[in-house]
Amino acid sequence: MQIVIVDDSRINLVLMGHHLAALPDTQCQLFDYPSAALHWCAEHPYDLLILDYHMPELDGLAFLAALGRHRPGRHPAPTLLLTPHREVAVRQQARQQGLIDFVDKPINKEDLLHRARHMMLLHQQPTPTLH
After folding, report:
1. Does 34 sit behind a cis peptide bond, omega within 30 degrees of 0 on the bond before it?
2. Which residue, of 43, 78, 97, 105, is most buried by count of CB atoms within 10 Å of its CB?
3. Which CATH class is domain 2-124?
4. How far apart are CA 69 and CA 82, in angstroms?
5. Which residues contact 59 (CB under 8 A, 6 or more apart)?
6. Which residues of 2-16 are buried (b: 16+ CB within 10 A; e: fewer)?
7. 31-78: per-residue pLDDT in tens?
């Protein structure tokens, strides 16, 4: 499984990468610059995107919008947004852009691992067809 983590805090990147390395058959791509992550995501497959909401170059929602433009027609991978915000409007806007779940800051290791496992399991499930 390929996990992409985008956070402008190097400490958070290293910590999350360390926590998620405990998941079997998992590799993490760490990015502290959203623009570098956008270019990588446009060219490579991944199974989970973990994205900080507050970043100076692009916030998490702007990143999701730009990602949609860089990957037209591709089924979006599950996304977790890291945020201290509990604002309903932010969460609704994020869901409209394809976000599925949130991880509150400060990051709790068990919560992060549980949500990451859950999102990757969902991503592995075949998409049901409607008849």
Report:
1. no
2. 78
3. alpha beta
4. 22
5. 53
6. bbbbbbbeeebbebb
7. 999 999 999 998 899 999 999 998 988 999 899 888 887 666 666 688
